[in-house]
Design a protein that fits this description.
Layout: E1 2-11, H1 14-26, E2 31-41, H2 46-49, E3 53-59, E4 62-68, E5 76-86, H3 102-109, E6 116-132, E7 135-148, E8 151-165, H4 168-181, E9 184-185, H5 190-198, H6 210-225
Antiparallel strand pairs: 1-5, 1-8, 1-9, 2-3, 2-6, 3-4, 4-5, 6-7, 7-8
Amino acid sequence: MSHRELEIRLNVPDAALGAVWAWLLELPGAFSLPMAATYFDTEASELAQAGWGLRLRREGELWVQTLKGPALDDLSRPEHEVPREVSAGRPALDLALHHDFALGAAVLAGLRRPLIPTFSTEIERLRVPLPLVDCAVEMALDLGQIHAGGRSLRVQELELEWKAGELGPLLDLAEALVRQHGLLWEPRTKAARGHALSHGRVLAAPEADVESTLTLLQHWREQARSPDA
């Protein structure tokens, strides 16, 4: 299924982790989901250089194959997800599953070298569906590691994913969490961090603080109000 993924990603400082975790656990529908993903690219990083990402991820017992395109703006990107079979081991990539995602299928067809595993992630996700007034949001607290070339990076972030309705309530929620817990805007996707790590680099964290994060949220709020947004 192809859709536009729109989410706000916030880094959770160590000092705030306990409070954020406890708050999410108290919300109706909260559940924990172990996830393990392998990301694929060619030896020449053809997908990453074009802004694309391809992964196979185990979500509980189910495998999901996902192809993501380049960012459309600060908050969104095209995404095509295909459920795979329940399996104890990772299934083989099946690129034909993305034939309905025309732009992505064309990118895959144009690759000059074979796809190989490049990095992996191990994440414990605390997921909470949250119906807001005029908006549906799914919150996901991700804790875990990115692995590549014998090196690892820690993941500790909260994703607020828009599902339906108005964008304003999502921004209101993000602002409240930033003010209460000191959460910070995290522009680096797991894929971007993993790709850098697979080449022996650590993708530098942005110079962000609470005030700059709030300023960015306000900028997105103004864009959402614009007739051209």
